[in-house]
Design brief:
This protein is of the alpha+beta class and about 130 residues long. It contains 5 helices and 3 strands; from the N terminus they run H-H-H-H-E-E-H-E.
């Protein structure tokens, strides 16, 4: 029995290693997929921009971020990109960052943030993704 289990583990590991061959290609068509080049975005982020690590720890900041995230996630008209924008609240200032697909999505996410913000400031840094 130990021999069978050992052979099974070796076979499973061998097949997993074979899948590494498909990195950079689609498994269904085998077409090459260009890796995303985020160099410009990463350089911008290093220049002191707000990141999720800047999220405030006060209960008010956490509750505000949570309320906006819930409103965004509940909206079935938004794309996955829009649902994945960064929402950062620090000392009452709400920062929105990331790509959305259209102007309408940008306005929609911004409106949800402003509704939850009350008198707090919303810093809309959302980008419209190029097609």
């Amino acid at each position: 029995m130990k021999t069978f289990v050992t052979l099974f583990i070796i076979a499973a590991a061998s097949s997993a290693c074979d899948k590494a061959h498909y990195v950079g290609t689609t498994e269904t068509t085998g077409a090459t997929v260009e890796p995303a080049d985020n160099t410009k975005m990463n350089a911008r982020d290093r220049a002191g921009a707000m990141t999720p690590m800047d999220q405030g720890n006060s209960q008010v900041d956490v509750d505000t971020t949570q309320a906006i995230r819930k409103a965004v996630m509940a909206d079935d008209t938004l794309s996955t990109d829009a649902k994945n924008v960064k929402i950062i609240t620090n000392n009452g200032v709400i920062t929105l960052r990331g790509p959305v697909r259209t102007d309408v999505e940008k306005m929609n996410v911004d409106a949800k943030a402003r509704a939850a913000a009350g008198t707090n400031r919303v810093d809309d840094q959302l980008d419209i993704a190029s097609k």
